[in-house]
Design a protein that fits this description.
This protein is α/β, with parallel strands linked by helices and about 500 residues long. It has 15 helices and 22 strands.
């Protein structure tokens, strides 16, 4: 079912980053931003900015919250409520929340109890992003209990995966068992950049690389308007080194951590919270030192150079996917504040020469810092508005992919599957997900197994032997209680099934 959010209603966009929470409230053609930066440092900067309201003055002040995510969420939402009362705006009718790690699904979904559980399940991939996002959701629900809460996925592609299976160097059963599908991230930022190219410059099929350089960093290769590569592929720490994330590192580092006694549950924090440029600089992530300090102060020059080199290598990888690239878009807080950053990364990536870099930097300094060209290469530095992009996605909230919600389901064997749902013996083949009723034929043939199993009946006990077969053969399987659904509606549908989160998406 679609949601219709009237443009005249008050609406709110919530953008949770790795170290910030940005909120925007829109009403009657006007807008107010209430933002908090540097969550995790000793002090936080809290800002209120008014657009189109001449009688109100922007405010900024410091608060001391540290890494208390619940307190950060409470402070920013309470301030938002106070601002609404002050200017006598109504409460928002809809709130769109940008989320990254919620599993595969529609671009926009309601924030149901199941979706909250799915974000908790995927928190392992996200550093503290999902934890902070859910803390903000709880405070938003308290502040605006009647508002429609929508989760807006920040995945780079609406397809199941950026990669064909034959590009992932594992056998198919491993890919299926562990859900090795690369969704990519910073999708809203890339979408905003491409929309800007189309509207302002009449470039409908962009060819080149979009470089998002803020607290999170990613490089996205685009061919004829189609996204073909994104460095942040499977998790928050994939791709370049970021402010407190390690970026992609050799597998041997993780093996070494485990060999020397690091608990497996501590790996996400090691890779996604206590590393990155702060690790390179030897500075605790909870100090008063910002990334801007690390990029500008002479005592951190070695950390800065290592950070730039690592990011330049990732940019080189993105260019290599295209063969070559002539057009580059830089967005994100660091790239827009530090105009030298983009040209420096392009030089390291061997995309430009030192002379071309000097020409580009001079042009950026002389023309307002938005556009430069040299040697057939063009560089654009753009300030994108992800908040408006979040609400635009909410306005386009239609059922692009149907989700089959399982309220009383149970995971029999964890994993993911993609295939056509076929009942009984006919579903016993590659590319099929076998639907098993209590009386369905079950072959118990390990030589030619389906991609997954859906067991449908009154009792899990009725499928004990079949579930044991699935477990022994590592085939993802889920049980659905017959009283809760009509699973025959899945027959002959192509679906993506994620058994740990009990989610089935028709694709």
């Amino acid at each position: 079912m679609a949601i219709m959010v009237c443009r005249d209603n008050c609406k709110m966009a919530v953008n949770v980053g790795s170290s910030s929470v940005k909120t925007s409230i829109f009403y009657g053609g006007n807008r107010i931003d209430v933002n908090m930066n540097f969550i995790g440092l000793e002090r936080q900067l809290l800002k209120v900015k008014y657009y189109g309201l001449a009688n109100h003055t922007d405010r900024a002040y410091h608060v001391t919250i540290g890494d208390d995510l619940e307190k950060a969420a409470s402070v920013i939402l309470n301030l938002g409520v106070s601002v609404l009362r002050e200017i006598e705006w109504p409460a928002p009718k809809a709130v769109g929340h940008r989320v990254k790690f919620a599993g595969f699904g529609k671009g926009v979904e309601r924030f149901t109890e199941k979706n909250v559980l799915r974000m908790q399940f995927h928190d392992y991939l996200s550093s503290r992003h999902n934890e902070l996002c859910l803390a903000v959701l709880r405070e938003t629900q308290l502040a605006f209990p009647s508002a429609e809460q929508l989760m807006v996925r920040d995945q780079i592609t609406e397809d199941l995966s950026l990669h064909d299976v034959d590009r992932i160097p594992f056998d198919n059963s491993t890919i299926r068992r562990y859900g090795l599908y690369a969704h990519g991230f910073h999708g809203l930022a890339v979408k905003a950049c491409l929309e800007m190219m189309a509207k302002r410059f009449q470039i409908d099929a962009f060819d080149g690389v979009v470089c998002q350089v803020g607290s999170g960093v990613s490089f996205t290769a685009i061919s004829n308007g189609k996204i073909v590569f994104n460095t942040m592929q499977f998790a928050a720490c994939d791709g370049p080194i970021m402010h407190n994330r390690s970026g992609t590192q050799p597998t041997g580092i993780a093996l070494r951590f485990l060999k020397y006694g690091l608990k497996p549950t501590a790996l996400p924090s090691m890779y996604s919270l206590t590393s990155g440029i702060y690790g390179l600089a030897g500075v605790p992530a909870d100090s008063t030192t910002t990334v801007e300090d690390l990029l500008s102060r002479p005592e951190y020059v070695h950390a800065k150079n290592a950070y730039l080199m690592a990011n330049g290598v990732e940019l080189f990888r993105s260019i290599s996917v295209l063969g070559s690239a002539s057009h580059f878009i830089f967005s994100g807080g660091l790239a827009t504040k530090h105009r030298w950053l983009g040209p420096e990364l392009l030089l390291i990536a061997k995309a430009i020469t030192p002379n071309m870099k000097n020409t580009i930097v001079a042009q950026l300094e002389n023309n307002g810092g938005k556009f430069a060209t040299a040697g057939g290469k063009t560089v654009r530095i753009v300030d994108i508005d992800e908040q408006a992009c979040i609400l635009n996605e909410c306005e386009r909230f239609f059922t692009e992919m149907e989700v089959f919600e399982i309220e009383s389901g149970a995971c029999e064997v964890p994993g993911t599957s993609v295939g056509v749902v076929i009942e009984g013996r006919s579903g016993w083949s590659d590319g099929s997900i076998c639907m098993c009723m209590a009386d369905s034929d079950f072959l118990f043939d390990s030589s030619s197994c389906p991609e997954g199993f859906i067991f449908f009946g009154k009792s899990r006990g009725d499928f004990f032997l079949r579930a044991a077969f699935a477990r022994n053969n590592k085939i993802p399987a889920v049980f659905i209680e017959s009283a809760s659904h009509e699973p025959l509606s899945l027959i002959n549908k192509v679906v993506y099934m994620d058994t740990p989160t009990q989610k089935i998406v028709m694709i």
